[in-house]
């Protein structure tokens, strides 16, 4: 198969979808890999690294899309790329269709085969191609939140860990999945007081078992959320309903209940966000303020730490890339029901029906 690796063009997206080690494996499996010039540069890989691994470098993104049977990417195609995608071409990447009707319509019109990292499942029903980026984003959420709590950038002016003689800050985490647990771990490590909420009791039991005693669990319902937003300094959103829009757990009117300078980090922004006032932001302009509450809603948080994220992502995606390349998408999906869950749109037909309920 001919595989194309374009350079990401989303704002400050510095990851790349295949490393030279991945190219080496694909070439070993008798595939051809075309890499756009400088595609890996921001993740620490030169064109020469790719050439030595067996790839051919192409100057433009147009040539990469034109030649490839399968495009392997990190982020969803953006408007400039819509017209480059061809009928029957496989596009393997994060799509997050539930949060974007224009993207969904464009991919339906393209008649391409859209396989979304974020809905591929493993045998336990978890999301193996989302997990490593949720690990990155969960850890980063605390790092970013701690920064935006500083007064000069309009935060409340609290040091999360406190100091001897002064109480630590309080972190509220919505969702005890991958993002939530990684965020809790970082916040606890800083010495903050952490409350983590979920509707899944098994997740809360797990957190209760593995976390130190200054991480407390509480069942997620509106009453409890309303109680905690009044007292917590940093609120992190990490809820997910697979393939669907995130439920809005924090409404606009609730912002008035919070202390001015409270920081909201809505990691779930790529599925529409779990806070009503969330709108996607970029690393260039990551925050905005509504009712004195700082909102951080960057939809590609891991893009800012590509040296970590590219390796973490490609460690898990490469076996799927090789499998699709070796067998073709139909056979690969037929044989692996978890990969089949990743098939969101094919030849203009929406296969993953939850998308339709969310975007219309
Ligand atoms: N902004 C970014 O750069 C990134 C965003 N993400 C996003 O973060 C979100 C979370 O991802 P994961 O942690 O991997 O998902 P996950 O599936 O591991 O965890 C989600 C948790 O939310 C819980 N949940 C569902 N409804 C809830 C409710 N009403 N109240 C409280 N909890 C509820 C679920 O029970 C589950 O435990 C996803 O939307 C994902 O796409 C992930 C990586 C990067
Ligand atoms: C999961 C995702 O959207 C990201 O890593 O950017
Ligand atoms: Mg995202």
UniProtKB/TrEMBL annotation:
A Pfam family recorded for this sequence: AlaDh_PNT_N
Reaction catalyzed: L-alanine + NAD(+) + H2O = pyruvate + NH4(+) + NADH + H(+)
Name of the featured protein: Alanine dehydrogenase
Active site: 96 (proton donor/acceptor), 270 (proton donor/acceptor)
GO-annotated cellular components: plasma membrane
Top-level taxon in the UniProt lineage: Bacteria
Gene3D superfamilies: NAD(P)-binding Rossmann-like Domain
Molecular function terms, GO-annotated: alanine dehydrogenase activity; nucleotide binding
Keyword match Oxidoreductase: yes
All residue ranges annotated as the Alanine dehydrogenase/pyridine nucleotide transhydrogenase NAD(H)-binding domain in the record: 149-297
């Amino acid at each position: 198969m001919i595989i194309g690796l374009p350079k990401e063009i989303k704002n400050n997206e510095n990851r790349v979808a295949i490393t030279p080690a991945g190219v080496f494996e694909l070439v070993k499996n008798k595939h051809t890999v075309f890499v756009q010039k400088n595609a890996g540069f921001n993740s620490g890989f030169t064109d020469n690294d790719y050439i030595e691994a067996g790839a051919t470098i192409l100057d433009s993104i147009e040539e990469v899309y034109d030649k490839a049977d399968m495009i392997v990417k990190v982020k969803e195609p953006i408007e400039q790329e819509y017209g480059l995608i061809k009928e029957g071409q496989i596009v393997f990447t994060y799509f997050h269709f539930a949060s974007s009707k224009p993207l969904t319509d464009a991919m339906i019109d393209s008649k391409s085969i859209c396989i979304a990292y974020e809905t591929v499942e493993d045998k336990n029903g978890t999301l193996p191609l989302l997990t490593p980026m949720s690990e990155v984003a969960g850890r980063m959420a605390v790092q970013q939140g701690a920064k935006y709590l500083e007064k000069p950038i309009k935060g409340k002016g609290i040091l999360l860990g406190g100091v001897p003689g002064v109480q630590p800050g309080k972190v509220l985490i919505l969702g005890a999945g991958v993002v939530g647990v990684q965020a809790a771990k970082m916040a606890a490590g800083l010495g903050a007081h952490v409350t983590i909420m979920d509707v899944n009791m098994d997740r809360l039991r797990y957190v209760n078992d593995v976390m130190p005693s200054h991480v407390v669990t509480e069942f997620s319902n509106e009453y409890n959320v309303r109680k905690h937003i009044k007292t917590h300094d940093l609120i992190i959103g990490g809820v997910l309903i697979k393939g669907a829009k995130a439920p809005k757990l924090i409404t606009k009117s609730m912002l008035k209940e919070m202390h001015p300078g409270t920081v909201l980090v809505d990691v779930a922004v790529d599925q529409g966000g779990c806070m009503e006032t969330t709108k996607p932001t970029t690393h260039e302009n990551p925050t905005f303020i509504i009712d004195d509450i700082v909102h951080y809603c960057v939809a590609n948080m891991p893009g800012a730490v590509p040296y970590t994220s590219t390796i973490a992502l490609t460690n898990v995606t490469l076996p799927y890339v090789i499998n699709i390349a070796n067998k073709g998408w139909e056979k690969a999906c037929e044989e692996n029901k978890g990969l089949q869950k990743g098939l969101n749109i094919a030849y203009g037909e929406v296969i993953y029906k939850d998308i339709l309920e969310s975007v219309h």
